[in-house]
Amino acid sequence: MVVDGVPVAVRVCPSELAVREALGGHREGGEPLVLLTAADRLGSDVLARLAKPRVHRLQPLEALIQLFDVREIDPELGENRWLIDALVDSAPAEGYERSGGRTLDLARAWRALLRHRHGIDPDAGLGGLLDWAASARRGRLLETLQEERDAVVEQLARALPGSSGIIAAALAGAGDDALALGLVSRVLVAANETAALVASRTRFEARLDGWSFDTGAANAWADAAERRLVSSALDDRAELEALQAADRILGQLGAEDLAGHSEHLTGGLRQRLSQLGTALARHLDGKAPISEVADRVDAVRAHRLSRDAAATAETALRLARWLAVADDHPSDVRAAAARFASDGGYADWARGALREGTAEPALSAALRRLVQAADERRDVEEGRFASLLAEWVPHAALDEGFLGVEHVLDRVVAPLASARPVLLIVLDGMNHGLLRSCSKTPSAPGGRSCGAQTVRTAHWLPRRSRA
To answer: Which of 27, 39, 238, 381 could form an S-S bond across to 234 if both were Cys, CB 3.0 to 4.6 Å?
Structure first.
């Protein structure tokens, strides 16, 4: 250490023999030497080699004044002897951080103790406390006497509201699962009060050595865990491990059926998809309005892991809404073609996108029923279109909005080519449904894309000679 700019050697000597060894290795005229020893008395030959030849008893308050570079100690701090001893015992070699204040108050003392003795940074909030609970730094709190441990828990409860559950997890040996337990606590807070919930909370308390479940603390714990999960602090592997641990713990608590209350747990997504399947089946049976299906789709979309699942859910909702609209039976081929371009093509695409189903059994069963109903309606529409087309062909009339293939070059391509070079690509068998499946459609299940842009097209029919 350095005192007034002068390097000073400090040696800890547990016995008089250790004192003699330290003195024997000390070079005369070298840097000053300070010996810290538990020995109450030293031999006269040893004392003769010391300045002011006697054993000086350390005064903790005086030591704190030097360690914090202050002039006085707040009397309130002086009433906590264990805190003073702990600060002296845990002091860094260069002393504690200087603040410019001339009085060491209780708040500053506590911050120094938490940071240097227990590795806890109050400024890092509950997120930092989650990291602490999962690290080896928690071991120091486990090793301290009960008086200090209780005081630290009480102080953290004041400095970091909601910290009691995280601290309880660390003290119960479950610190490695502090993040996962926080994700689980969201379910235990958000679910409706039932006998099953009470039982799950009781098991949760037992897991933390009797921590008394506190809704406010559990909610704050959940908020911190969810923020940490979506932050850049975790890599993909750490995130996956946390989610797997949370699902496992939820099962051990017997709370799997409550997972849907979480927007982060994988079990929560599975349950929301199952609930969507149930709502969709009820709607197809005429027992639930489309709004109930829409609510379940919103719940799936709100889940952080939904991605492709949300696209599937939204497609199913749109197809169900299409089915719910009464068929107005177009009176001529133009109206039928316009109907196909506006929504029939989308229905064709949606049927193909949903036909493979999902990994969730209840939703897959409902999707099969939905696609079958859409198939039946499209079969009727296509049969009607064929009849209307047969009636139209003998006296066919075309215009700008209803072109034959033979008019594409002179009426579409030529005007464009007069202004800029044009490349015409003919895709045999292309219709609105196929075009949509190959367009850049963010909501498409699976995100399939072939790089084409969605364009506004005229309704083109084959050459009349080929009809």
So the answer is: 238
Distance CA 64, CA 18 (A): 26
Closest CA to 166 of 229, 214, 198: 214
Q: pLDDT, tens digit, for every residue of 358-374?
A: 999 999 999 999 999 99
Q: How far apart are CA 88 and CA 436, in angstroms?
A: 73
Alpha carbon distance 390, 223 (integer Å): 64
312-324: average pLDDT: 94
Q: Is the pLDDT of residue 126 over 70?
A: yes
Instruction: Please state the pTM of the whole predicted model.
Output: 0.73
**445 pLDDT exceeds 70?**
no
Helices 266-284 and 236-252, axial angle in degrees (round to 10) = 70
User: In whole angstroms, what is the distance from residue 457 CA to residue 434 CA?
Assistant: 13
Residue 81's alpha-carbon distances to 6, 77, 151, in angstroms, are 31, 8, 12
Q: Residue-wise over 87-102: b if at least 16 C-beta within 10 A, else e?
A: bbeebeeeebeeeeee
Where residue 461 falls among pLDDT bands split at 50, 70, 90? Answer: very low
Q: Which residues contact 225 (CB under 8 A, 6 or more apart)?
A: 130, 178, 179, 180, 181, 182, 183, 185, 186
CB 374, CB 350: distance < 8 Å = yes
| Tens-digit pLDDT profile for residues 187-240 | 999 988 899 999 999 999 999 998 999 999 999 999 999 999 988 777 888 899
Flag whether pLDDT at 448 surpasses 50: no
**Over pLDDT 70: what percentage of the chain?**
89
Q: How many of the other CB atoms lie within 10 Å of CB of 379?
A: 10
User: Are β-strands 33-37 and 9-13 bridged in parallel, bridged antiparallel, or unpaired?
Assistant: parallel
Instruction: Give the Cα separation of 245 and 239 in Å (integer).
Output: 10
Residues ≥6 apart with Cβ < 8 Å to 167: 129, 133, 141, 152, 153, 156
Domain boundaries, the chain: 1-57, 118-264, 402-466
- Checking DSSP bridges between strand 459-461 and strand 33-37, what pairing results, if any? unpaired
Inter-CA distances, 173 with 59, 114, 224, 233, Å? 37, 20, 20, 23
